[in-house]
Design goal:
With about 625 residues, the chain is α+β, with helices and mostly antiparallel strands. Helices cover about 40% and strands about 20% of the residues. The strands form four sheets. A nine-stranded mixed sheet has the order 1-6-5-4-7-3-2-8-9. A five-stranded mixed sheet has the order 10-11-14-12-13, with helices on both faces. The structure holds adenosine-5'-diphosphate (ADP).
Length: about 625
């Protein structure tokens, strides 16, 4: 390069791939245009880091006394924004090298793709390749960079471009080390020429940058992030403030987890479990939000894959020096660092929740009430997290009283010879407790899980067994239970029973597969049992509960010949095969069974029949 060239401004053309990126950025309707400021601050912060490092090892640095800081100024009349730093600076050649090309070959490949028809958005480009600096052209139609390298003998240089195909580089006047970037804003980006607006953006995206950011003579960033402090130095109130800032939720969180460590990965994180799932009418969010910081720069507002889906109610901040700034969705899956972070945080959350259960059962019960459905869904969908999830599961059972039981509790209370875990599906805990299916279990003192939540059906699809013991629905027709229990003495002859059974088969028709005498019922007159595969039934049940069209599969009606009602019915059939009271009672027994299981589609249809039965009962002297 000749001295003449160096002393004169010179026009150069951007590399082809830069031109393409610029074109995409300038013409995309990019809603998050404000991120240009984050990109510039991020570059400035890097430049400051580098000069700081230089000064540790090298005394020959221009302006060693200059404060390491970033300054932002806005001029609404001229419609300009200026960002300056006292960082490492760039020489003329570095300006050409850094701001005239895109270094990464992956970026070039990406641009190639867009030529082949893939429609790229600005966020995609920025997200994937960190073409950070060029994002200025989303808001500016002319950008000037004046820079002076930290090397004492280097001269100041300037770079200027209006986007498009070319830029100019040349000499400049600048005494101080560092870089100043001036954006001449587009007409439709005039909003950014306001100190208030810029401060708002800094607060949102760059509040915890490690160097001070000044607007006028005021520092506008907080600098030291709470999550980078040692947990013992942070007051409870500070966690709450952070939670409020992050979530706009005025309730206190149920739980916070603060993790600050350098090994095996650099990871600083504060996570919150909110107190409530719903936020009433003004519900602000569907799921939790995790902000992702790298090197103190906010890089993702809503990081999705850093925790398993079943923890999606968790909110907070994750910060790691080991993350690339241009982290994107795909990289979470492919990056070992991110996988590591995900694993660490997930297992810590599990530990924290298990601790909570141990130390504060009441609080854990609140957690379970709010977020149990997420955990249950996780059991069905997240194979990897299954072992941990099973520890969080809680059940109401026939033995749990007002409390909740874990699967481990259940296992401990199993009776001699019990090899299965039993559950009953019902509309509510009250209905479950009055289920006729419970008769043989009550008689033998065997505990039964009461599953009464819509999500329980989904959960069961992923919970076929626990520690080698299969889960069994107690409406199964072929259960073999450990231990003995005497069934009540039949009050009618086999013949009387057969006639009643025939009558029931006629009345209930297609709805039944078979009518038979029950060997297990004690206090209940009747129940409906199933023979098909439990999984199929549960899916059907889910469909039905969701109000989807689902036909009742025909089932087996078991009648208890030792029950007074059944005996009386049999006698009435004997006296009059077409007795209307018998017909109505059989119909009602069938409906009762559906009702208890929560599967009755339209209980109001029972009312006329009940009236008839009441009339018959009252008429009798
Ligand atoms: P990235 O920051 O991802 O490398 P950019 O397009 O934002 O991509 O910046 C390209 C390069 O320009 C940077 O790597 C850096 O070397 C240089 N650069 C940008 N801004 C500054 C600055 N304020 N001070 C010093 N160098 C800078």
């Amino acid at each position: 390069m000749t001295t003449e060239q160096e002393s004169q401004p010179q026009a150069l053309t951007f590399k082809a791939e830069v031109q393409q990126v610029l074109q995409i950025l300038a013409h995309s309707l990019y809603t998050d245009r404000e991120i240009f400021l984050r990109e510039l601050i991020s570059n400035a912060s890097d430049a400051l880091n580098r000069v700081q490092f230089e000064m540790l090892t090298n005394r020959e640095v221009l302006d060693p006394e200059a404060e390491l800081a970033i300054r932002i100024e806005a001029d609404s009349e001229k419609r300009t924004v200026t960002i300056s730093d006292t960082g490492i600076g760039m020489t003329r050649d570095e300006l050409v090298e850094h701001l005239g090309t895109i270094a990464q070959s992956s970026a070039r490949a990406f641009v190639q793709q867009t030529k082949e028809g893939h429609k790229a958005t600005a966020s995609e480009i920025i997200g994937q390749f960190g073409v950070g600096f060029y994002s200025v052209f989303m808001v500016a139609d002319r950008v000037t960079v004046v820079s002076r390298s930290y090397r004492p003998d280097a001269e100041a240089a300037m770079w200027e471009s209006s986007g498009g195909e070319s830029y100019t580089v040349g000499p400049a006047e600048r005494a101080q080390r560092g870089t100043t970037i001036t954006l001449h804003l587009k007409e439709d980006a005039a909003e950014f020429a306001s100190p208030w607006r810029l401060e708002q953006i800094v607060k949102r995206h760059s509040d915890f940058v490690a160097f001070p950011i000044y607007s006028g003579d005021r520092q506008i960033n907080q600098q030291k992030a709470l999550w980078r402090r040692a947990p013992r130095e942070v007051e409870a109130e500070q966690y709450q403030n952070l939670y409020r800032q992050l979530t706009l939720d005025s309730d206190e969180p149920l739980l916070h987890l603060h993790l600050s460590t350098d090994v095996p990965v650099d990871l600083h994180s504060i996570l919150f479990v909110p107190a409530k799932r719903e936020r009433g009418l003004l519900e602000r969010r569907v799921e939790g939000k995790i902000k992702l910081y790298s090197r103190k720069i906010l890089i993702l507002e809503e990081a999705k894959d850093l925790l398993p889906t079943y923890f999606r109610f968790v909110e907070g901040v994750i910060d790691s020096e080991d993350l690339p700034l241009n982290v994107s969705r795909e990289s979470v899956q492919s990056s070992p660092v991110l996988q590591r972070i995900r694993k660490t945080l997930t297992s810590r959350l599990h530990r924290e929740l298990n601790d909570l259960a141990e130390k504060d059962a009441e609080k854990f019960a609140r957690f379970w009430k709010e977020f149990g459905p997420f955990i249950k869904k996780g059991v069905a969908t997240d194979y990897e997290g299954r072992a941990d999830l099973l520890k969080l599961l809680r059940f109401q059972t026939t033995a749990s009283g007002d409390g909740l039981a874990t699967l481990a509790d259940y296992k401990r209370r199993m009776v001699d010879g019990q090899k299965e875990i039993y559950y009953v599906l019902a509309a509510s805990p009250e209905a479950a407790r009055s289920s006729p299916h419970l008769d043989p279990f009550t008689a033998r003192g065997i505990e039964v899980l009461l599953l009464t939540d819509l999500m329980d059906g989904f959960m069961l699809s992923g919970l076929r067994e626990y520690e080698g013991m299969p889960l069994r629905n107690i409406d199964d027709a072929n259960l073999e239970l450990p231990g003995e229990a005497t069934a009540p003495e039949p009050q009618i002859s086999d013949e009387q029973f057969s006639r009643l059974a025939e009558r029931a088969a006629t009345v209930l028709g297609e709805r039944l597969k078979e009518v038979r005498a029950s060997k297990v019922l004690r206090d209940s007159p009747a129940r409906l049992v199933s023979t098909e595969d439990a999984m199929g039934r549960e899916m059907q049940r889910i469909n039905q509960l969701l109000g989807r069209e689902a036909e009742q599969q025909p089932r087996i009606l078991e009648l208890n010949p030792g029950h007074g009602l059944v005996a009386a019915l049999a006698r009435r059939v004997e006296a009059n095969p077409d007795d209307e009271v018998v017909t109505a009672t059989l119909e009602q027994l069938y409906d009762n069974a559906l009702l208890i299981e929560g599967l009755h589609q339209n209980p109001a249809t029972m009312v006329p029949r009940l009236l008839k039965l009441m009339e018959a009962a009252v008429e009798r002297p």
